[in-house]
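Write out this protein's structure.
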Amino acid sequence: MLAEDPSLTVPQLAARLKKSELTIHRAIRSLRESGRLQRIGPDKGGHWQVIE
């Protein structure tokens, strides 16, 4: 989903995936630690970059 729409927020992802925000935060942390996801810019106004 982030590859298609990098501006999605954690609450938006949680709603679309029908998961809790805590679950989304954990998944994002795991993806960032493994180098597969990067945040570009600030929390407000920034976007996600999926690294394949």
